[in-house]
Write a structure and sequence with these properties.
heterodimer, A: about 280 residues, alpha/beta, Rossmann fold, four-stranded antiparallel β-sheet, 11 helices, globular, disordered N terminus, B: about 300 residues, mainly alpha, 10 helices
Chain lengths: ~280, ~300
Amino acid sequence: MSDRTPAGAPEPGSEAFEAELRDEIRRELQTHEGGAGQPNIVELRDVWLSFGARDVLRGVSLGVSRGGTLCILGGSGVGKSTILRLMLRLLLPDHGEVLIEGRDISAVSRPEALALRVRMGMVFQGSALFDSLNVFDNVAFPLYEHTKLGDDEIRERVEEVLSFVDLDPTVVLPLLPSALSGGMRKRVAIARAIVHRPPILLFDEPTSGLDPITTRTIDELILKLRRELHVCVVVVTHDVRSASRIATETALLRDGEIIFSGTPEEMHATEDRYVRAFSG
Amino acid sequence: MRSNAFWRSGEHTSIPRRAPKTVPDGSARRSAARLARNAVLRLALAVEAYFRLLLRVSRACLSRPFYGGDLVQQMDTIGVASIFIVMLTGLFTGMVLALQSAVEMERFGATVYIGRVVGASTIRELGPVLTALIVTGRAGAGMAAALGAMRVTEQVDALRTMGVDPIRKLVVPRLLAALVMLPVVTIIADAVAILGGLLVAVLTLDSTAQLYINSVWATLAQSGFVLTVVPIDLIQGLVKPFAFGGIIALTSCFHGLRAEGGTEGVGRATTRAVVTSSILILAVDYFLTQILLVMFQW
C-alpha cells in the first residue's frame, strides 16, 4: 500500500534498473497484441478545434488499437489534455471525427455518448477523487451508478481492484482522499477507472508531480493493466522516459499538429531536430 | 494638394503623423463604449446560462435517476445545520423589534400593540428575508465553494466521464433540499422572533404574555384565513422562503459550476454566489410582495 520500491527490486538509476527496464520494454513489445492490421479502438480523424481565435488542434489524426498504448507527448499547453476531453465528449470538435469503437462520439445523441463514456475509464491529472467520499465509495461509485450488483459483490470487486493496484483494502477502504499520498491517490483513481472493466483507459499526466519511484510504480501498473486486462490505453504526458517504458505508439504534438508518430524506438532514432530535442 | 517640391524638401517629416496623446481623439470614449458593450454582453450570456440551468434542473427533477441519499444529506446541511444560527437571528430580531416599536408606542400609550408590530413584520417580511440572507451566507456560500472546488479539481468532469449528469447528482438535490427546508427554518425563525418580542414585552415593558400573544394573533386573524384555519399572513410568509430557497440553491450552484482559475476562482465564485443571491432575494421579495398583495387584496 505504500509507495516504496517492492522488496528485491533494483534501485532507480542503477544499471540493473535500466537493464530491467529495457527487458521489460522488449517483452512488452513482443507480447503486444495490437499494432498494424488491428482496427483502431480509439481514433481521431482530421480533428480541428479552436478556442476563440486560437487554434488548439489543427487537423489531428491518430489512433490506437486494442491492447495498444498510445502516448501523446508535447510541451505544456499544446492541447494534449484537450484530446482526451474530445475523446470523452467533454468538448466537441469544430471539425473532424472522434471515433470510439468505430462510433463518432461527437456526433451521437447524448444518451449514446453517455453509453460510450461508460466504455472508457479516465484517470485525471489530479486524480479527481471525490473529496467527500472515502476510498470505498470513490471506487464503488461507477458500480453503484451503472450496475445492479449487490453490496457484497461490489465490496468484493472494490477489494479486488484495490489489490490489483497494490493497495491494501483493509487499510485504505475507510480513508478519505485527503489522508492519501499522491501515489496512493493516483492508484485509487486507477482502481476507480478500471472497476467497471472498461475496454479503454485514458490517463492525463499520470506521473506528473510524482517522485521517480512512484512514477515507476505507476508505469508498471499501466503495463500490468495492458498485459492482464488487455485494455487499450491512451496516455497524455510530457514525461518521455515514462512514455518510452509504457508506449507501443507515440505521437508528438506541437502547435496543434502531430509532428511525429511512431514507436518509442522510432522516436528516439528520428533525425527531426525538435523531436530529438524533446525526446532528449 | 502639395507640390512634389514640398515632399522632396523633407518638410513633411516635421508634420506629426498622429495627434498627440493629450489631445482627445475619441479613442478613450470608444474603448469605454466597447467595455460597456462587452459587460452587457457578458451579463446577457450569464442570464441566458442561468435560465438554461433552471430549465435543465426542472427537467432533471421530473425524471430518473434520482439521488435520494444526496437529498437527505443536503436537507441536513441546508436546513438542520442552519437552525441554530437562524434561531439566534430570529431571537434578536424579535427582541429589537419589540424594543424599537415600544419607544414609539409608549408616546401614544399603545404598547399593547407591540405584538401586532412584531408579529406582522416578522411573519410577512423580516422572518423570510433575514432567514434567506442568513442561509445564503451559510449554506449558499458552502454550496458554491463545494461545487467550485469540485469543478476546479476536475471532480465534475470525473462525474461526467462516469456517465453521471452533474446537474442531477449535484444541483437537483441541493435545489429540492433548499425548497423544502427554507420554509421550515423560516417558520422556526418566525416563532423564535415572536418569542423574543414576548421576552422583551414581559421583562422590560411591563406587558403580560397573554396581552402580547393576543396582539400577535389579532394581527394574523386580521388578514384573514385560507381554508378557515391558515392565516393569509402565514401563506405569504411561506411562499417567499420557498422562492428564496430556489434562488439560493440555483444561484449558488450556477456560480459554483462556473468556477475556474484554481482556488482563487473558487473564492470569486463564492463571493458572486452570495452577492447575487442576496440581491435577487431582496429584489424578488419586493415583486413577490406586490403580487401577494394583489392576490390577497390587503
